[in-house]
Structure formats: structure tokens, C-alpha cells
Amino acid sequence: MSQALLEVLNLSVALPKTADRRYAVESLSLTIRRGETLCVVGESGSGKSVTAHAVMQLLPKKSLHIESGQILLEGKNILDMSTVELRKIRGSKIAMIFQEPMTALNPVMTVGDQIEEALLMHGIKRGPIARQKVIQSLTEMQLPEPELLQHSYPFQLSGGQRQRVMIAMAMVAQPALLIADEPTTALDVTTQAQILALIDELKQRHNIGVLFITHDFGVVSDIADRVAVMQRGKLVEFGSRNDVLERPQHPYTKQLISAVPKLRTDQTTPTNIHKPLLEVRGLCKTYRARRQGFFQKPARFQALDNVDFHIGRGETLGVLGESGSGKSTLGHCIARLFDGDSGQLIFEGQAIEKLHGNALRAIRPKIQMIFQDPYSSLNPRHRIGRIITENAILHGVSKANAEKRMYEILDLVGIERTAINRYPHEFSGGQRQRIGIARALVLQPALIVADEPVSALDVSVQQQVLELLRTVRERYNLSLLFITHDLRVASQICDRIAIMSHGRIVECQAAADIYRNPQHPYTRSLLNAIPGRDNESLYASGTPTHLPTAALEPIL
After folding, report:
1. Which residues lie across from 350 on neighbouring strands?
2. Residue 296 has what pLDDT?
3. DSSP secondary structure, 296-317, as one string
4. Which of 84, 229, 300, 492 has the fewest CB atoms within 10 Å, i.e. is most exposed?
5. Which of 262-266, 388-392, 427-431 has the lowest mean pLDDT?
6. Domain check: are 137 and 45 in the same one?
7. Does residue 78 sit in the same domain as residue 180?
8. Residues 130/133/139/145 CA torsion (nearest 10 deg)
9. Which pLDDT score is estimated for 118?
């Protein structure tokens, strides 16, 4: 543990002249030893990923360039290496796991061929030896039936399986340093726990160094040996895991730790849940896959299996479960974006599951949806003003009234009125999510279906959006169906929580009771998988942190 595997010395990476600051990374120094995990923590724009790409020498030359400093790998300066030398050390000495495996993997190659290609780049020819190494690597990643799975394409695998394939590609040439750039951000808690345990096991088994980039201090608590906290390109705090988590020195570190969602046990059951706005009775939905052969029947997947629940007026009901549990399908069926196969949807006393044409059009303004990815759900060719008002105008609201509503809601969500002439790409992720909320509110709905609305956001921005949703619900007496895979987030905003597994609701009770006395084994497994759950410095308080109104100002 004494000899440094990687040393970053006084590294500065310059931004283009048109940027809001001079450096993406400024005068950064840190070290990683063999057998050690260093977690680099910070919000979007802090320089975490730029640091990782600088170590791998993958920075875009037209927009980012290293102005000064050294990056020493086993004593050799990476910045002095030629292209040929860099090609030799990538994979064999240093490897990287990217945040989104679906975009990092080649969609037209089997996963086995992609892992074998990594071996080919380092002198191992295609053949029985390479194939055996591929199978050994997939086996080490604890993937099922590796002999068969190696012939699968990325789209045929789950998110957790794709991430394990990415780790297999990174580890197949046995590097000394593994860089993991937000590898668990989009995963549910149980899959995340498995990936974190796998990375830690690989570190110990192969005695490698791990540079782990994250914005989640729960993850830091589980896997870090030391922690580096970055803000706007600068290193503001560096120390052991216990020192940083239990005795943080810098105000920014304290702010990030305080923003970690707490498990609340102080909620009271709302009194209005017995006055249902929406009742779901026996809802079923089955997907049919393509035929695998001419004489074979198409495969069937039961996404929703006899689902029953209700949402009261002004209530927030959380729907939690792992990927594939059916929660997003449930949200889409309630918003009538999908049709269920059977069952009833009773909204304000009216059956809506069979409405079509003008009857369905009349009900749509009352049930609105906030999507998981605000960037892909906002039309990139339209300005914000049109995006927010267009649906209201299409549903018969005059342009003048739609614009009046828009300005009132923009003030509420913390977006400047002048922003209506800008395009979605000109906003941060948190701002785009607020715009998505504004678009839903302008129609004055009674129910909002929020599908993973904060899963891709930093903890501090996530906290602001949750506070905004609470404010919106109270001001307009809205009901929320809040879909998430994060029990910590659900704890902050939900009155009741329904736990879904394999298309069924296995447990539904008040949020505080879910945490105090979970009834179903699956619920207990979700609770046990929460990152950093046993760390008192993160979860000692059961009371939510309410942000002041000023915190709703846009973050750039």
C-alpha cells in the first residue's frame, strides 16, 4: 500500500475560451496505491470525468487540452508517451468502465467478440485460447451460462449484465489500474450493490488500484479507502473515508453529505387516502416478443400481473422495484400511453381504461407525466416557450392564457422568464427537469406520473427537485405517482410506498412503516442493498432537509 501506482501531480486541463471558467481541472494532485479504492466525488462540472479521461488520454483535443502537470503510472509519465505506447498500456496497464454500457458497447457485435477484440489488441490471437479467456472472464463476473451468454448482443442483456460485460472487457487483460466512471448511477439498488461488491472483490483478488468516480456518498461509504472531493475543477478535500464522512472540513463536502437522502421514519399516514383520485383494479399487461423460429410461439413477458392500489387526492404514492419489476409499464398504462390487457382504471369516478378518441383527449390534461430523461423528452428543435405551452394550446387553452400560466409556473420552478427563447441543450440537467415539471403543470393536472425524475441528477440538484415537487403538490393539491428504484429518494417525498416485484405489488403501506417494519422478504432485500445504509454519519437523521427558497435558483 505504500508505493504509488498512479500519481497525478499539479494537473491543469484548460477549457475553451468561451467557457464560464478557465480550467476544467486546476492544479490537481492525488495518488492511488495498489489494493486501494480512491473515490472522486463531486457534482456535474466538478472535473471528475475530465480527470479520468486525462489519465486515459481520451480528452477531446479540440475542446480540452492539458496545460501543465504530470500523470505518472508506475513512475512513467503518461503525457510523454507516443500514440503507440498509449495503445499498449490501455487495457494491459490501465482500463476504464464507462457510465453507460449500452452506448459504450458495440450494438452489432456479440459481447464475446468484443471481449476477444480487447485480447486481440494486446497480442492474443483469435482461437481456443482467446475464447477460453473470454469464458473465464465472464465466469469471474458471475454472469449466468457464460458459454451461451458470450453469443448474446448487448440489447439482449439487462443493465446489470451489460455493466458486468464492460467490467469483463476492462479486466480481461489484467490491468493494474481500473477507472470506473459512475458505473452504477442508472442501476437499481440491488444490482448496484452487486456491482460494487464485484469491483471490490476484483480489487482484492488482483491487487489493483481503483479510481471510482461518483456523486453518491452512500457508494463512497461502502467501497472507498480514501476520498477526493472536487468542486469546479479544484480539489477541496482529500482524506480517508472515515475522516471525510465523519469529520468533513470543507463547506462543500458538508453540503454534499447533508444532501444525501435520509431514510425517514417520522411521516404520518395522510388522512385523504381514503378519498381516491385514482383506483387501479386488477390491471394486467403482457408483452409478446418476436418469434424465435417459424414453428415456435412468441415468448410472453407478464409486465403487470393483477395490480391493485389507489391514490388519494393530494397524496404521493411511491412505486419501487428493480429494473423489470413493471413499475414504468404501470406508469405508462395509468397515463394511457399504453393500453392494459385487462383490469380497470377509475379516475375521478370514471372508468378510463377503454377511452379513445375525443374522450381520451379530454382526460389527458388531468393526467400528466414527467419522464426520466428530460433531455430526450424535450424537443431539441423547439424553444422552451413553445415546449411548455404547446400542449395547453392543443387542448384548447388560448395562447394568452397558456403564456400567463407558463410565466407563473416558471417563477415557481425557479427558471427565469427570459429562458423561454432558449433551447433544451442550453440548460443543465436539473434545469431541464424543472422545465419538464413546468410542461406538466401548465395543463393544471390532478395527477402527475413521475417516472424516475431524479435518478440521473446529482444529490444536491436531486434534493432541490424533490423539494420543488413537494412545493408543487402542496400548492396545487396534486396527487403524485412517484416511480423510483431508490428507497432513500422515496423516503423524502412519498406518503405511502408500493413495492413491486415481477409485475405484482408485494407490499404497500405508509412510508415510515416500510422502513420501520418491512413485511415482505423482497422489501427487506431492497433495504439491505441501500449503499452506506449502516453509516451513521449519512443516515443518522430521519428528518428531511428542507431547502430554502433560494435553493431553487437555477444551477449552471
Report:
1. 347
2. 58
3. SPPPEEEEEEEEEEEEETT-EE
4. 84
5. 262-266
6. no
7. yes
8. 20
9. 83
Residues 417-431 have pLDDT tens digits of 988 999 888 887 778
* Nearest-5° Cα angle at 551, 548 to 555: 180
> What pLDDT, in 10s, does the model give residues 134-164?
898 899 888 888 888 889 888 888 777 888 8
Q: How far is CA 32 from CA 40, 210, 368, 442, 507, in A?
A: 11, 8, 48, 51, 44
Is 461 a residue whose pLDDT tops 50?
A: yes
Q: Which of 110, 144, 174 is the last residue of a domain?
A: 174
Q: Are 6 and 144 members of one domain?
A: no
Tell me the one-letter amino acid at 457.
L
Judge whether 12 and 71 are in contact, CB under 8 Å. Answer: no
State the Cα–Cα distance between residues 538 and 393, nearest whole angstrom: 46
Q: What is d(CA 93, CA 175) in angstroms, rounded to the nearest whole number?
A: 4
Residue given cell 416485484 in the structure block: 501
CA dihedral 159, 165, 171, 172 (to 10 degrees): 180
Burial label, 7 (beta-carbon count in 10 A; 0-12, 13-18, 19+): middle
Parallel, antiparallel, or unpaired for β 94-97 and 177-181?
A: parallel
Give the structural domain span for 159: 102-174
In a domain, 208, yes or no: yes
Which backbone phi and psi does 24 adopt, to 5 degrees? -75, -40
Which element (helix H / strand E) includes 398? none
